[in-house]
Structure formats: C-alpha cells, structure tokens
Specification:
It is a single chain. By secondary structure, the chain is mostly beta strands. The protein has a single domain, classed as TonB-dependent receptor, beta-barrel domain (Maltoporin, Chain A, Beta Barrel). It contains six helices and 49 strands. The strands form ten sheets. The protein has a 25-stranded antiparallel sheet that branches. It is a multi-pass membrane protein. Its main location: membrane. InterPro entries: Beta-barrel_TonB, Beta-barrel_TonB_sf, Plug_dom, TonB-dep_rcpt-like.
Length: 891
C-alpha cells in the first residue's frame, strides 16, 4: 500500500505544480455549497448536525461513482455486497437475504422505502443526489434505519425542454445506452420527464472452462424505463409522480449471481451431501466405473491458479419480471407550514437459478456406484422473490423564520411476499420416485408418501405479511444566536404473520438411512426417501408441547402434496428518538453532540435453507448511539469529522447448525442474537482546493466494531472448536463423529466470542481523489481525475478465523473528461482497478467439507469418517475494466 500511495501522492503533487504554473491561487476558488434533505427539509450539508455523505450527479461523473460498490469507496463506514445485495454502515448491517428479517440500512428512493439497494446504483443520468446518513435515524426514518439511511433523489422534470443521450462502451463487451427528455406539456403548470436505460454485457469476468458452459460474472441484459409528471397547480399546491419499470434477462450477472472465488480443491465428499459428488474412496482414484468428467482439467480446480476461472456444469441465471415502482409527492404550502404526503410502492418477481453448493460445482457429470446405481451429480437450485409493498407518509412541517422549528409525521407500510426456493437433480430420474421405506419415513401421513414432480430434493415456500406503523415528531430550537437543540421521538409498531410449506427428501444420501451401510450403495439399496412427513426429522414439536416463540400452529402434513405446514405471527414495538445540541460559533464552523436510539424489528428465519427449525424467531435489535462532530469551512478547505460510539444489542446473526452426526437429524439454520457489541470509530471527509481548478478529496475512517458479550455459540465450520484461535467454554451432548479421536474432538463445543470483529467491518478505509480542470479559450475543458482506494482486512463471520478473513486490498482508478465548447458534447475515457488487483467486497463465507465412506460391509469394508478441510468463498470486486463514454445534451 505504501508504495502505491506514495506513487499516487507524487502524481497528485506533479499535477499541483503544473497547475500552479498556469493559475495563481485566488479568492474565487471557493468550495460550492451542497443542499441536502437529510432531515426532510432543505438544509446546507455543513449546517446539518448529522454525519452525511452526499453525492450529486456531477460529483459522481467527476470521480467515477457509477454503482453502489463505488459509493462504498467514498463513504466512511459503508460496506456493500453486490452479489448478495446486502449493505451495512459502521458494522451494523444485514447478514441474510431472508425477507422475514429486515435490513439495517433503510433505502429510500424518492421517499419510498425499498428492501433492495439496487435503487441506489442507478446511473447519474437518473439521480440528482444520493445522501448517505450514517448512524441510527430512528426519528425521521425509523423503519430499519438502525444502521443509517440512504436517500436517492431522482432528477425531476424541467420547465424548459432539454434532453441527454449517453452511450458507454467497455471491455468484456459491455454496452450501455440511456437517454432522457424533459420539458413542459401543453397543459399549463404540468411538465414531464421520460427516461430509459439499456445495459448489456456478454463476456463474463469469470471464465468457465467446461466446454459449452457460459462465462459468469456481470453477464447482464437489463432494461429500465421511467416517466414523471410535475404539477404546479398554484402558488400553494404542487405535486410530482414517477412510474418506472425494470426487466432483467441476465446470464451469470446481477444480484445473486456468482461473484466469489473458492480456491479450495473440488469438493470430493461422498455421494451423499448437497453436491452429490465423489469421495476419496471412489472419486478420481478410479474405484467408480463409468466416470464422466466434463472439465478439461479433470479433478483439478482451475481456481487454484486463477481466481477468475471455474469449472461448473450448472450455470447461473438471473431474471427480474413484473417490476413496477410508483412514487409520488404532494405538498400544500400554508402560510407558515407545509403539509406533505409521500406515497407509492413497488412490486417485482426475481428469479435465480444456479448450482449448489454455490462455489465450484464438481466437474463430474456422471458415475456409477457399486451395485449399478448411476449418479448424475448436476445439483441445482431455484430461488425466487415475489414481493409487493406500499408506503404512505404524511408530514406537517414549519416553514417560518422562527427560532422554533418543528415537524410531525405519520407512517404506514404494508408488504406481502413469497420467497420460494427449491433444489433439484435435473438429470436424475429417480429423484421423482418411487420412494423407499414409505412406512418408516411417511408416518405422519399413514405411511403413504405423496408423489413428487420436478425431481426436487428441497422445496420451501414461505409467505409473510408485514405491517409497520409509526408516528414521529422533531423540534429544533435556536435558543441563542449560536446554540440550537434538537429533540425527536418516534413510536414504531411492526407485525409479521404468515406461513411456511416445506418438503425435504433424500436421494442416495447415506446419512438419511437408519443403516446406511446396508441400504445406500450396495445392490438393491434404496435411493429415495421422504423426510418431511417424519416429525422427528424436521424437528417439529409434538402436539401438546410448548410452541417456539413466534410459531402459532403445530406442524401439519398434506398427504396430497407431501408438504409440512406451519404458521407464524408476532409483533414488536419501540420508542426511539434523538437529542442533541449544535454550536455555530461563526458562519464557517459547526460542532454538534447527539444521542440517537435505533431499533429494528425482530423476524423469522424461514425459507431458503431452513427445515422448520426449533427457534425460527429472532429478537429485535437496538442501538444507543453517541456522536460528536465538527464541520469546518475555510476558503479552500472543507473538513467534516465525526466520532461515535454505539452500544449495540441483539445483533441478528444467521447460523447453520453443524452437521456433526452424519445424518440430517434436526439440523437447520437459526437466528442468533449477539447479546452485546460495540461499534466505535472516527470518520474524516475533506475537500481541498489549493488552487483554481484543482480539487483533492480525502476520506479516512477507523471502525472498531466488535462483540463484547457472547458465550456458548458453536461455529458450524469448527463445531469442536479445534482452531488455535477458538476459545471453547464447554461441551454439548451433540456428537461430532468427524473429529472423534482428535484432541478436543468428538463433540460440539461452544465458544466465547468477546472481542471478535463484527462481519464486514474493516477497521480502516482510505479514499483519495485528485482532479484538475484545464479551461480552454474556446469554452471547452479537459478534466483529469485519479483515485486511490484502500480497504483493511475484514471477516465474513463473527468467528474471526483465517478461513473467514479477506485480506486488505487497494485499487487505482482514473478518468479523462473532455467537454466541447457549449457543454453539449462530453467524452470520457475511464478505467477502474487499473492494476487488476484482487479486491474483496466483504469477508468470505466458509464451510467444512466432511463426509463418510460407506463401503460394502458384505466385503468387510468399514465406514470411515473424514474432514477434507474448509472451503472459503471470497466475494471479489470487479477486475480491471475500462471504456469510453459519450454524452450529448440537447435543448
């Protein structure tokens, strides 16, 4: 890092010296004021007592902020996974895509809450300004803003006719075409804006070496359309409405697609676990007959030598249909106050197809077990999100010049969603039946197993209805010319209710059988059984026993479909708010101290990877945040600094119960609430314009987000706590047959996690940009811009281990922008990650690869348990990309 930072600093200094020879420093070199609406009224960024990072469309074009990932580079404390569409601020974020659990950073697109961060990644042509409010926003935003909030404000219709077309051509055969027109309509007081975007990339960042299989990694084909109307009815009443539509027909690109690097060897487990692949007893040793391997490298993982190569026999596909968004804003201006209604909603249906496990699918496409059973291990999944929600907010805010300002509001949000997920064996006819041992494994339905179509092994359909209501108010009192106080309160009530339907079956999985050595791989072995209708297997409580918290019915079984069914219902409420003081000793200085309390409702971990678990509900999260800040303007320098400390309670962390006994048992995915954690740090944002036309941006943040209290948690990757860094605190009765005989092995051991760093919270981040503008006599200009980015190591789990750690990384970007005289034509030559370094969007996910050899006992061959190691999947940033962008404005 030091050498590259020094090189960047030397280049920036050279630009400064060259610029200094051409321009003398003058009083006109003043940093422009930026107006934001972070507290639901227009204020200067330097006057608002909140840590806010704001990005206008012009700034984004100048620096090269074209995506949410780019936004994280220049926003202290902000982290985002483009693959998982998860975002966090200051160590407070979302660690699961289960919609029964909410995000921690609220995304508002034109005042309408959305559960996806995709809206914040729209191009600068459509977005006027993006505001990132760091820290709990429990008063004015409330819903799921325990970590912060992101406001995305669209460009609005104009009173004069104007338009713009942009085209971008980049490597990997990426092409983007977009345009907008705006102006008045024949109806007096009504103006419009229309826009469209098309983005297509056909060559992936990840090369699939299997013949006939497509590349992956940002292979996209997306379309976006929007239309707006603005109404100026009279001097007192105005309105605005926007309707937009989206469509994705991507290959291996977009949220949910493959974007990880798994450098471990190919999984070589028994033909029993999720991948249905080979074990050392068979596998590449040749003990299995008729092995068909589609990979030119055989059993060698290409990712061992190249992080952007895979050998996958099941491609990813991402699709988005029926996506419509509505946003509207209606304001009536009274003499000293405004009444504003903000309402709208969204609906979409998202589809994701891919391999499971989600790292590198085994290159084996077929093999024959002893006894003649042919295994076709192409194991795939289908994941969907079918969501609809509406949002209503009513505000009444003062507008006078009084020293006493106030705002009152009411909020209502309603969402209905389904999140169906299933895994299946597309090439295995036996996966549809008939079933073996129906009397044993379908006892709940009289020993009769329902038929199954589609060769599905796991099939889960959760449905939830979510209602959120709130009332809030905030007052600001300027009690002296230099001192102001702010007090705000919000009452929130959240309710979630719904159901889950589940079917779980086993095909050729030894651990599913009572005596696998007799049934799994010998002649006459039974390949398919149904587990759902066996209460002891899925973990359903027996009638008459206490139900788990949030579960409102005992599990029932439908003999016609084979699904198990149960219902959920619970509610949460909280009073949150803020209190602070602000000191303005002069017109260029503002200091503040603020306390905020944040809240996020509890939820359910249902769907995706659950098996009707015994503890599906999680408690609500709360944060008590203390922050002091200073915002200072000099004539050529602007510096904003914030120091904060959070007391964070009940952070919601998804954990998977470890498979330790060789079978499925009651293993499932659960929510775990970390009792206590601390997030504290320092954030600095500066803009320096030492001479005319030269601007230097420098951001630095230090973040210490760690667990302070958590005892007894079992690491699914290391259930016996054998890692040298583990701190075991005891044992459980659950066995771990895979580590039996090892020191400390043979059983599960919980751990003391005090001091462990929170997931996806790098301690240090640096962003540096220098840009210089040459103004030509004919009215044109040339802007050179270069950025250096560095991010510290981070973990992907509350278990800080080598297998969950991503190393630090850095990146160099550059842009050259030419603007023709008249400012109609702009040409941008750009490059990102010019040194083609590996960057990491977060810490890796990790999984233990353990299995058993179930050889033929009739030949005297015994069962052998083994652990092949731990596979870490690192979420990578984009490789080196470069291109040419053309912009043309007309009026």
């Amino acid at each position: 890092m030091a050498n590259r930072l020094g090189l960047f600093a030397t280049s920036a200094l050279a630009v400064s010296l060259i610029a200094g020879a051409a321009h003398a420093q003058g009083a006109s070199n003043v940093i422009e004021e930026l107006v934001v609406t972070a507290e639901k009224r227009e204020q200067s960024l330097q006057d608002i007592a909140v840590a806010v990072s704001a990005f206008t469309s012009e700034k984004r074009d100048l620096v090269g902020i074209n995506s949410v990932a780019d936004l994280t580079n220049f926003t202290p404390g902000l982290q985002y996974s483009s693959q998982l569409d998860r975002i966090s601020l200051r160590g407070v974020g979302r660690l699961t895509n289960v919609h029964g659990a909410d995000g921690a950073v609220a995304i508002y697109s034109d005042g309408i809450y959305t559960s996806s961060t995709v809206e914040a990644g729209k191009t600068p042509l459509f977005v006027d300004r993006t505001e990132v409010l760091r820290g709990p926003q429990g008063t004015l935003y409330g819903r799921n803003s325990i970590g912060g909030a992101i406001n995305v404000i669209s460009k609005r219709p104009t009173d004069d006719f104007q338009g713009e077309i942009r085209a971008n051509f980049a490597n990997y055969n990426r092409r983007t075409l977009e345009g907008t027109i705006s102006g008045p309509t024949p109806i007096p007081g009504v103006s419009y804006r229309l826009g469209a975007n098309w983005d297509k990339q056909t060559k992936g960042w990840i090369d699939n070496i299997v013949p006939g299989m497509p590349d992956e990694g940002n292979v996209v084909d997306t379309k976006y359309f929007e239309g707006q109307l603005k109404f100026d009815f009279n001097d007192n009443f105005e309105g605005w409405v926007k309707l937009s539509a989206s469509e994705w027909n991507n290959g291996g690109g977009g949220p949910g697609s493959r974007a990880t690097w798994t450098p471990a060897p190919f999984p070589t487990l028994e033909a029993a676990n999720a991948a249905l692949v080979l074990n050392p007893g068979y596998g590449c040793s040749g003990k299995v007959t008729n092995v068909v391997n589609a990979s030119p490298m055989g059993c060698v993982n290409p990712a061992l030598t190249d992080p952007r190569k895979i050998a996958s026999t099941v491609p990813y596909k991402v699709r988005l249909d029926d996506t419509y968004s509505l946003a509207s804003e209606w304001t009536y201006h009274f003499a000293d106050m405004d009444l504003k209604y903000v309402g709208g909603g969204q609906m979409y249906h998202y589809y994701l197809d891919g391999p499971t496990p989600v790292d590198h699918t085994a290159p084996i496409t077929a093999y024959t077990l002893p006894g003649g059973l042919v295994i076709n291990p192409r194991y795939a999944f289908n994941y969907q999100e079918d969501l609809r929600w509406v949002s209503h907010e009513l505000n009444l805010a003062s507008t006078s010049d009084s020293d006493f300002q106030w705002l009152l509001g009411a909020y209502y949000y309603s969402e209905a969603y389904e999140q169906p997920t299933y895994t299946y064996l597309p090439d295995q006819a036996q996966a549809s039946g008939p079933f073996g041992l129906p009397g044993t494994f379908c006892a709940a339905t009289g020993g009769i197993c329902a038929p199954q179509q589609g060769r599905r092994i796991y099939d889960d359909v959760p449905h939830l209805d979510i209602k959120s209501k709130a009332v809030f108010g905030q007052i600001d009192w300027q009690f002296t010319p230099t001192w102001k106080t702010t007090i705000g309160l919000r009452y929130s009530h959240d309710r979630k209710s719904g159901y889950e339907d589940l079917r779980l079956r086993c095909f050729a999985i030894a651990g599913c059988f009572a005596k696998p050595e007799l049934n799994a791989f010998i002649p006459g072995g039974i390949p398919l059984i149904d587990l759902t209708q066996t209460p002891s297997v899925v973990g359903a409580p027996a009638p008459g026993t206490p139900l788990p918290k949030g579960v409102t019915s005992y599990t029932t079984y439908d003999p016609t479909t084979g699904f198990a069914h149960r219902t959920y219902d619970d509610s949460w409420s909280a009073v949150t708010g803020t209190a602070g003081v602000q000191w303005d000793p002069d017109s260029s200085t503002m200091a503040y101290a603020r306390y905020s309390r944040g809240y996020k409702a509890g939820g359910f971990r249902i769907g995706i990877d659950t098996t009707l678990g015994a503890s599906p509900e999680t408690a609500e999260e709360t944060v008590d945040a203390f922050e002091i800040g200073l915002k200072k303007n000099w004539s050529t320098l602007q510096a904003n600094i914030a120091v904060f400390r959070y007391n964070y309670q009940n952070a919601q962390v998804p954990l998977t119960v470890a498979q330790t006994a060789g079978g499925l048992g009651q293993a499932n995915s659960i929510f775990y609430n970390i009792p206590k954690a601390i997030s504290q740090g320092v954030e600095l944002e500066t803009i320096w314009q030492p001479i005319n036309n030269l601007q230097i941006l420098f951001n630095y943040s230090y973040l210490d987000a760690h667990v302070t209290e958590s005892v007894g948690t079992v690491d699914p990757v290391d259930p016996s706590a054998l890692d040298p860094l583990a701190r075991p605190v005891g044992t459980t009765t659950s066995a771990d047959i895979f580590t039996a005989g090892l020191p400390g092995g043979g059983f599960q051991r919980g751990q003391n996690l005090a001091g462990q760093q929170m997931p996806n919270a790098p301690k240090n981040k640096v962003a540096l940009n220098a840009n210089y503008t040459w103004d030509f006599a004919n009215g044109g200009s040339l802007i050179a811009s270069a950025s250096y980015l560095w991010r510290d190591a981070q973990y992907g789990s509350i278990f800080n281990r080598a297998y969950t750690r991503s190393p630090s990384w850095d990146q160099v970007d550059a842009r050259l922008t030419w603007r023709a005289p008249g400012d109609k034509l702009t040409v941008i030559l750009w490059g990102k990650n010019l040194l083609d370094e590996l960057g990491y969007e977060g810490g890796p996910g990790a999984a233990r690869r353990a299995g058993s050899n179930y050889n033929n006992p009739l030949l005297g061959q015994a069962q052998t348990n083994f652990v092949e190691g731990i596979a870490s999947s690192y979420p990578l940033t984009a490789p080196r990309t470069f291109g040419l962008e053309l912009q043309y404005k007309f009026n």
